[in-house]
Amino acid sequence: MTNQPVSPADARAIEEVLNRVAYLLDTHEYDRLGEVFAPEISFDNPGRLTADGLDAVIASFKAIATPAVSHHITNVVVVGAGEDTAECQSKALALRAEGKVTAAIYRDTVTRTDAGWRVSARRISPLG
To answer: What is the pLDDT of residue 5?
Structure first.
């Protein structure tokens, strides 16, 4: 991650987008993922979901038989990587349908678009 400054307003808007991803996933509103993901999204959660492009990501989420019940995003760090790009790192906890809680690190690239900030790449590294 580079270390360019990000305005407080942009940092807050970026964190809001990351939080909205969790809410859309928890409510299974996959057709609304374009509100938080860029059309060219590259998504990599090894062993669970890997897809490129918004349509493929949506289809992949719809195909998950037992999606997580609840996602929790914490410890968000936002670092500028260019005028309209930022790199984010956060911790995530997910409550699975069988009651197990899993932890991961999310590494996101976010890009400013005409519609606001969107996640253009997400790499998930499971913990534990």
So the answer is: 84
- pLDDT band of 2, cuts 50, 70, 90: low
Q: CB within 8 A of 66, min separation 6: which ones? A: 96, 97, 98
Query: DSSP string covering 92-110, please?
Result: EEEE-TTS-EEEEEEEEEE
pLDDT tens, 52-98?
A: 999 999 999 999 999 999 999 999 999 999 889 999 999 999 999 99
Beta bridge partners of 103: 93, 127
pTM, 2 dp: 0.93
Whether 60 contacts 48, CB under 8 Å: no
* pLDDT tens figures, 4-21: 889 999 999 999 999 999
Render the burial of 30-57: b for 16+ CB within 10 Å, e for the rest. beebbebbbeebbbebeeebebeebeeb
Q: In what order do the strands lie in the sheet with 37-45?
A: 49-52, 37-45, 116-127, 101-113, 85-95, 70-82
